[in-house]
Model the fold of this input.
Amino acid sequence: MNNICLRQMQKNQHGIIKAISVAGELGRRLREMGLIPGTRIKVCGRAPLHDPVAIRILDSTITLRNNEADHILVEVE
Amino acid sequence: MQLKMALAGNPNAGKTTLFNQLTGSRQHVGNYPGITVDHKEGLLHYEDQTIVITDLPGTYSMTAYSAEELVARDYLVYNRPQVVINIVDASNLERNLYLTCQLLELGAPLVVALNMMDVAEARGIEINAAVLARHLQVPVVPIIARSGFGKDALLSAALQVASNNPQWKPLNISYGDDLDSTLVQLIETITSESLMTETYHSRYTAIKYLENDEQIQAKGREISPKTAKLLEQLVDKTAEHTNRTLDVYPEAIIADHRYGYIKSLLRQGVVTRKFDADRLYTSDKIDKVLTNRLVGPVFMLAILFALYQFTFSWSEMPVSWLENAFKWLGNLVEARLPDGVLKSLIISGIIDGVGGVFGFIPLIMFMFFGIAILEDSGYLARVAFMMDRIFRIFGLHGSSVMPFIVSGGIAGGCAVPGVMATRTLRSPKERMATLLTVPFMNCGAKLPVLALLIGTFFGENKAKYMFFFTMLAWIVAMLAAKLLRSTVLRGVPTPFVMELPPYRFPTIRGLFIHTWERTYQYMKKAGTVILGISILLWAMMTYPGLPEEVTASFDQKHQAAMAAAPPEIAAELKNKNGLLSDAAKNLNATITSINNEKAETALRQSIAGKIGTSMEPISRLAGFDWRTDIALVGGFAAKEVIVSTLGTAYSMGQVNTTDSQSLSDHLKADNNWNRVVAVAALVFIMFYSPCFVTLVCIAKEASWKWAGFSMAFNTIIAYLLAVAVFQIGTFFNLG
Done:
């Protein structure tokens, strides 16, 4: 078990969100999409230029930019 | 009695499909004042009841960050619909219930429409609606919006709720000890001071204060600065405390507890899953190909190119029908009315102007139809996903790609539908930057000018230069966007965080309603302003007209030419029967050149001509003489006018836009023109002020202030570029 940043996760890797350290609009946008600590996520893939990243969370696919993913700490399996 | 209902839900939960299903075509689309969020209202009769349904913008939550969310919340609070139908995607229940939870906290009388039961079933998700209803304490009705299944049950449940005349009763959720105790204090102050209590429940106001909701805070300060300060101090203290002990802000704690509430509720026998959560569904399999890092972009190019082809080649026929219809109307007036100002006004001012606007309609319909397919199927979100990295460099958004392509990213588009296509962007600053830079693309109306000048001066490499100028348009547009985003539209990028909805087959009905309502908006908005501007432009090109003695001298010349010729030749020309003899042809040429000279003098004397002539000292720096200037003033009405105005200014009479060989020869022989001037003119024409139809659209999508800005900003950029080209080119003697 180790904690890494969402940006460093590989394709198809699973993990559980440990912490989201950002306030304001971005923090709220992430939360309303279901990105809250304790939720399981999986990296689905990345765009042709490696950014943004697409993740599977709850029952939907969400995309976010790498610099937004930086705020998300994940405990990978 | 009329019953007021509102429809709320997440984007992609099937809200619009349900709305169309319930109201059919009895819809009315307007705008909320000052913002471009659609206000949709529909009528419906059910069991002798007349129901007005408002389709609220799709939102994921009820905070004050985006215009959509504010609209949705304000509508509910100020209009107090008797029932709120909350549409929820059954195949994505947990996330969708986050909004439901907030609607319950607001206290709105709710009916939950559990949509996409079929999709959920296919995914092995079984939902017990009765249990969910018991826990939420509101009716839950399973529906399939696409097929209309459950529609009646939903309506009767909604009527049932309305007939009980429910009070707004907020749901109380515990947000943990720290926040709960602060809430008690906040509520006490709010209630004793009656702060906004007639609009919001005091507990709701208290929660919004803890969530740092800017709208509520601002209102509080406005109503009672003293109470507001007290509340803000309490919130700050708690925030400081939670930040120190737990390293989180109160807003995050509140969200955690909302999800906790939902999770615990779902665990009590609401949802059973048959399959493993990582199972791949059809949609994911399609994505393996369409968003693949290698072949994804290839598919994207193909799909966008197909859309472009569809829009511009399929609409060609209806566009030419409309053009012919207006031409026929013009000819009718031409034949019936006596020569004079009235005739000129009706033909050149009204028919040409209105015809110009209506000529765009098929184009706009086809474009919106194509975009509706991409949008409703879910592909547009994938395009944004793949293109975002490139567009972000210039301060734009992945979704900007669409408007650019429609506007002429592949040469030959049109900025009018391009500007309207920016509606798919939800980030305000990125949207504005896109809106202001799409007119730089090479639209179809600029092509005849491009073809004329390139053909005249670079005839041997036409294709190569066309490609070069298309690329140049992209580069200038991107750099201009970057410039705007670092000056007038400066600001951190709006979060990209976005959902990739599962692929779905668009419903035909949805596509048609979508296309029609946007086309109608264009007609209504553009049609009203354009007539006025078109008449104004006509007046500028016509007035004050030639002084009497000048007209008389032209008439004299005319008569002298006729008199000088042998009488039988003059008679032959007057009767114009069949083939003319050579002598008559010569006479005809003389007369035509006198008429052309008269037209040139009249144009030069007109207001537009005077503007053009007076600009000559400035435009000289870019190599343009007064003739080009007048053509450019005319091009403001519509870029295709440039070629014909240039023809008049060169005393060549009516020049056919598509066949301008004579004008081309003339330019080649003219001393004022050479390759450097041609490139300077091309650059200026590509980038100067958008045509006025586009400007009207910008004004309607943004504001008149932005339309004015666009006019000035583009013209300045175009001028600087043209001057640079001319000065550098002349310095190195490249002409």
